[in-house]
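Structure, all two chains, one model.
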Amino acid sequence: MKFYDVTDLALRNLRESIFRNSLTTIGISVGVASLVAMLSLGIGLQQLASQRLQKSGLFDTVVVTSRRDLRNFREPREDGPLPAESPVLDEPARGKIEQLPGVIEAYPDIRFSTEFRFDDKPHLTMVAGVPPSAKNNNDAFDGMQGGFFSAEASPEVILQKSFAEELLGIKPKPGTDDTNIADLAKPLLGKELTMRYAERTASPTSKGPVDGAAYSVVSRQQTLKIVGVTDVDPDSMRGAARARVFVPLKLAQDLHVMQSSLRDASPSDAATYTSISVRVGNPNQVPAVEDAIKKMGFSAFSLVDATRSMRQFFAVLDGFLAIFGSLALAVASIGIVNTLVMAILERRREIGIMKALGASDGDVRGLFFAEAGAMGLVGGTVGVTLGWVIGRLINFGTNIYLQRQHFPPAQIWSVPLWLVLSAIAFSIVVSLLSGLYPAARAAHLDPVQALRYE
Amino acid sequence: MESSPSLAIRTENVCRYYQMGEALVRAVDGISVDIRAGEFVALLGASGSGKSSLLNLIAGLDRPTSGAVTVHGSNLAALSREELAKYRLHTVGMVFQSFNLIASMSLLENVELPMRFAEVDRRERSTVAHQALESVGLSGRLSHRPMELSGGEQQRASLARALINRPKLLLADEPTGNLDSRTGTEIMDLISSFNHSLGMTVVMVTHEHTLAQRYAGRMLHLADGKLVDDLSNIPSAQAPAPRGETQ
C-alpha cells in the first residue's frame, strides 16, 4: 500500500473508535508532558546554576600567588621549588601566564584598604581594581545603576550598595533588604569622592636585591567620580576581605598604592603582585592551566573540582527526572499495546476480509504501525504543549514565591528546541515499539480463521 | 456456454487436515480435479463436506496439508506469504455468503479497497470504482454505508469489489445463502453474465442443487472431503446482459 493509503486507513480506523483512541493518546500525552516538564526543569536549573557560577568567576578562574608569600604554606605537599627559590609574581610572569593555551586574560589583583572623604566625612573601606572585561563577565555589573567605567584608567568609581548606604548615612534595618538601589544611586551618581592613599615609590638610594626598605611611602589623594552603584556584591568570593569600592584596574596600578599584603620587596621596582587572577575560556581547561602555572613555580588555586561535582549532580538529577518522566510514558506505552490488541480482536474479521481481498502481511502490519505512530505523534505533540504549560506554571509560581522573598526573578525552566523535537520523536518511537507486537500479531492472523470470526 | 481449452485450476490429490483437539479432521481428503478457464463450476455437498475448505485452498487463503493446487500454471504451495497475497489481489475475486463489506466504509470506499492494496492511482481508483458500482446497478448508492442497504444490494457491491482488479477467477462461497430467492436470482444472473462476458472462471460453493443446475456448466459433488461426483450440466438459465455493462 502507498504511504497515503496507509495513513488514510489508519486515521479512519482511529476515528472509528475515537473515544478509546483518545484516551490512549491522552495517556501518551501525560507521559510525554511529565517527561518534558521534568527535563525542562532540570535543564532550566542547570542553566541557571551554570550561568550564575560562570559569571561569579568561581569556575573559570585560577588564582595565582607567589610561593614567596608565606601564607601559601598551607599547601606543603605541592611539588616545585622551595618558597625562597620560587620566581617573583611580576609583570613578565603575568605576561607569560597570559600566553598559556586556554587563558583569556591574566590580571593582577589589586586591593587595598584606604580612606575616602565624602561630604567631609571619612569612610574607611577596601578598594579593588576591576579589569575592563568584568563589564561583560561579572553579572554584578549587569543590573547596576549608572554605568561601567568610561575608560581603562578613568578616575571613576563604582560603589557597592552597602557603601553607598554608608555614604548617605542610611542605616539598613537588620533583616530587611528592601532599600531601593535606584533611590540610593540618584543622589550619588556624578558626585565626587576623594580617595586618600599611600603611594609606594622606589627609593633612589637603596637598590639592594632583598632589601625591605627599598621604597618609601608618600601620602596622596585622588578625586574620583561616582559612575555606578551595584546591588549585587561583585567581590563575593573574597569573603571578609571583600571590597566595597571598585576602581578601574589600570588606574589602581598607576597609582602605585601601597598594598598591605605585599610585604616582600621585589628586586626591581617593576610591579610585583600579591596575586593574579587568570580567566580561562572553558572550565574544562582549568586543570591544564593550573598545572602549567604550577610548573612555572607559582601556587595556583581553583574551584574546578566543585564544577565537576556540580555537573555530576546535574547529570544525576537529569537522569532521575528523565527516569521518572519516562515511567509515565512506559505506562502509556502499555496502554497503546492494550488498545491495539483490543483493536485486533475487534477488527479481526476486517483483517480477514482485507487479507482475502489481497492485503499482504506488510499492508496489515503497516496499518497497525501507522495507527500506533499517529497516536504517538499526536500524543507527543499534545504532551510537549502540556509539559510546556506545566513548566511555565511551575516557573510562574516559583517566581511569585521568589518575589515575595525579595529575590530577583529567575528562569528555572527551559524548553530548548531539541527537547521539543526529541520528546515528540521519543513518543513516536515508544509508540511504534508498542505497536510492534500488535502489528505482528495482526499481520499473522490466519485469514480463514479471521473470516469465520463473528 | 463458451469453453476455453486452457487449464485454469488443477488440484492434485490435495488434502487439508485440521487438528481439532484429539481428532484429525480431514476437511479435504485427496481431491484431484481440473477446471478449464471460463468454466462455471458449482461445488455441491452437505455442511462439512469440505467444499468451502477446497474453495479456500483455491483462493490461496489456506495452504494444503499435502498435494498441490496449481492456478494458471503457478503452484500455490510454492508461493511465499507475500506472493500468495499478490495472487489473491490480482488473480482471485471473492464473494461471501455474509457479503463481508467493511461496515465503517461507504460502498465506494469498499469497492476501492482492493485497488489501494494494488497501489492504483487515486483518481483512477475513483473512476474504476464508480464504473464497477454502476455495472451492478448501484450508482445511486455510492456514499451509503453497507448497513443502510438491503442484502441484495450489499452482495452486488461485494461482487463489484471482487471484480475490481479484473481477476481471472471468481470464487463465490454461498453467494445467495443470505438472500431471498428473487434477489438470489438477481445475483446469480450477474455472476453468470460476468462469466459469459468476461470469460471469467467461476467456482461457486452452494448446497442448493437447483441453483447449481440453473447456472453451472459443471457440478462437483463432495462428501467427507472427497470428490464423489463430477457432472457436466447444461445451465437452464439464459444469462441476461448485466446492467450498465461497460466492457
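Chain B has one domain: 7-232.
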